[in-house]
Model the fold of this input.
Amino acid sequence: MDERTPVEVTRLLDERGLAPLHINLLVWSLFLTVIDGYDIASIAFAAPSLVKAWGLKPGGLGPILSASLVGTLIGSALFGWLGDRFGRRIALASANLLFGVFTLAAAFATAPEEMFWLRLLAGLGIGGIIPNVVAINAESAPGRLRATLAITAVAGVPLGGALPGLVAATLVPDFGWQVLFWIGGIVPVVIGAAALVGLPESIKFMALHERHHPRLGRLLQTLSPGFRMPANPRFVIAGEKQVPGVNPVYLFDDGLAVVTPLTWLLFALNLMGYFFVLSWTPTLLTAAHLPPTDAALAGTVLQVGGTIGSLLMASFLQRRHFLGLALLFVLAVPAVGAIGFAGLASREALLVTTFVAGFLVLGIQSGINVLGAMIYPTSLRANGSGWQLGIGRIGSIVGPLAGGLVAGMTIETQYMWAALPFAAGAAVSLVLWRLAGHRVQPGA
Done:
């Protein structure tokens, strides 16, 4: 019989509500996700310059645009496992250091083959950020704010994705495409080193691992000043099923045999459409004889719309879950399909359309990043999220490659094809709403 005094971690978090700890985590998360989003998008904005510098045909960009996504496929699962095994803080710091080093090396690439391998290796680290940022915020938040805070935390990804467009429009003409990777390499190395010292650990992760209990006890006393730590505590997380180890087999237990593969499909569909739009928009619009600055600006506006969408839809998705996602997928179909027509109509129409498309598509991605992770218990959350993003990256790889396959079509037709995955995503979201909606209630 366990004679230790139970300490109800979930109750203490819920009673305290929003605290300085959560603001601190959000600030750290925005640093981590902004540079993650920057590095994801940087290759798309370097692409027009690479076509000229290396004499590439537009279709030849496909492998380079997909390289970091192949690395992310592996890195999401790898760093998800690392986060569940050794902690979210170690995983996040290590991921930043890894992709920072290889992104900086990409600034010195002299051939397409070199760029392909450097982007692939950088992708390993890029893939580790979102699963662990979602986990560290969801596991430290009060129940009524859990999804809201986690979705807000990953809103930095589209915000960071907007920055390479500004760099491409303002610095690349004077300093060359290499400046995109100088920034994308140095900044994450600095952030990763700082995170090793200053980033807090997930509260529920600490509750599940005895080596963190002394630090957790001190933190809980800070969060809840009226609380007094018993001499021999046993930390309890309400409603949690602790899974031994981090074996991916557990992702299919406890009624998840169908739900887990469906979340993988949902990720793949949204990422397929999103990365087609993200990777090809600057190149396609330039090929359609729009000024390069307009093409870069459209890519930036896409990301700005995504940032705003992620923030504004956090509360809506906290309440509506997968049903809300289904509605957003439906709306994304005409928004994405219209980009090609808008690009040929006027600059104003293009910017409005790309803003709306980003608002919906990246709002969807922020939502599924969090809602998908929250169907799993703490002991599996980063691992489950990592596998979702990892398998989902198959879609993100297919998207840019598909752009190369339809390169001979009109720009209007290309974006109409890009809208199809969102129609399928709406159907999958409805099925998940029926099967797994109860798993992501506000207190989950």
